Amino acid sequence: MSGRPTPAQYLRCLDGIVGREALRFLHQRERFVAALVRPLVWLFIFAAGFRSVLGVSIIPPYETYVLYQVYIVPGLVGMIQLFNGMQSSLSMVYDREMGSMRTLLLSPLPRWYLLTCKLLAGVAVSILQVAVFLAIAWFWDVQPPWWGYLTLLPALLLSGLMLGALGLLLSSFIKQLENFAGIMNFVIFPMFFASSALYPLWRIRETSPLLYHICQFNPFTHAVELIRFALYGQVNWTSLAAVVGCTLVFLALAIYGYDPARGLIARRGGPGGGGGPGG
Amino acid sequence: MLQRLLAGSLGLCLSLGSAGAFASTIYVSNEKGNSITVIDGETLKVTATVPVGQRPRGITLSHDQKQLYICTSDDNHIEVLDLDSLKVVGTLPSGPDPELFVLAPSGNPLYVANENDNLVTVVDVHTGSVRAEVPVGVEPEGMGISPDGKVLVNTSETTSMAHFIDTQTHQIMANVLVDARPRFAEFTSDGKQVWVSAEVGGTVSVIDAAARKIVHKITFAVPGIRPEALQPVGISITKDRKLAFVALGPANRVAVIDAQTFEVLKYLLVGQRVWHLAFGPGEKVIYSTNGVSNDISVIDVAEQRVVKSVTVGALPWGVAVRD
Fold it and tell me: Which InterPro entries match (chain B) (predicted)?
């Protein structure tokens, strides 16, 4: 393998990384079930208790009053992708500790490409989880128009990339697997709760204008709104811009973070304390 | 494959286009706004708001669909709105506090429930004169007329009765006791049954029109809604008698009922305090007036799904649709 890699090699690399992720996913059936149980518990139990939270308001993209369970489904789809993004960041840390990361990064293909492949593999898995979740929600009377499922796909790809890139960025900060719990507390929960996933922003504004502004600047809010609008065949342009912008920023930082020459890995002296890839 | 897809989508566009060929108009009376909201049935956009007399409640179209009769309760008469010019062109006598009325299938006369003096007034819409007054129970409200125009059913809220009145003799032929506070009466299109809703009782009584006996009582239960809030008011039954829709007041739901088995199939979420219902052309959609949230909801009959809600004036009460 000398000179510039050919497109076929790029494809083979993508195939290898996605294949590995898919294999890993298939071998961890518990993970799949767990990824589904979490949003389903919210849908079946939490939504039942919070029926009145919406009150009487019609907010876009809805054209009439909706039940709470209908409202939170896009938020729960976002939740699946958020957890999935963090899960793949966890697997990056694991890979680094186990040394398979080194094998991956030794590839002659550019680092940004390898990391993007890794991201795409994670997004593919999350879309699979979302599909099963939406199928179950359909029987729970959450029935968007059929074309909404098609328009949802590009939105899922974008939001999945954004959350995956965030996970990737975070994983470049984490030294050890044990620190993952910190991610849960400091990233997942605040992001999820300070967003429009569970309650419409106008409701939050009524109680706390400050929280309302925090929610507005939360990228996760925009991922959820992008998904919500897409599910009804519409585009929320503000959210689309925010998600694309955040994806690019997170990805750029993550690629920087994984650069052994400049990144945080090098500064810390490498993963697992045993010297970074190429370092 | 691509060709087939294209042909399919073209067909879909065409069928959507033809569905829009029904140019219907929706009229909504705003009890507090003292106005009639006019809505284009196709675009669902408000095209006009016409000021009328005080406290407009029950509304119905004239037989030729050129005029709208409006119970302007606090003016103690009925106003006649010309639907082409959207101007009030006259009034009809009604007795005090008219609330709800029903037009004879032939287009004349108009039977008016006078809530405050326990009467049903029979008004000739051509001459503008009162033909008869029929004393009924306390607080009459609901009015239903048999398809042949021979039997009028009036419900009195405080007496909790459905009065069967002979429209020839203007005499009460029978009284059927129903649950507390009956608000609305509706005949099936074959004239065999009368459905009467009881607001406080929370039921709909299905009465055999010939035997004048209750054959079934429909009850409601919505998860998460307290039973007292389930207050049935408006009723609409499809012509083929397959489906019935019942507005459940402060439960903010419209119940969809199998009109053959009387089983409740679904509860549809609409705006707050849903009062009355009216079918659109071809019974493809049904509109509900939501009193507290100041809007109407549009329900797709075939899909049994609320597709849109449209803001109207203050306290929407009655609804009528011109084909």
Answer: Host-pathogen_enzymatic-act, Lactonase_7-beta_prop, N2O_reductase_N, PQQ_b_propeller, WD40/YVTN_repeat-like_dom_sf, YVTN_b-propeller_repeat
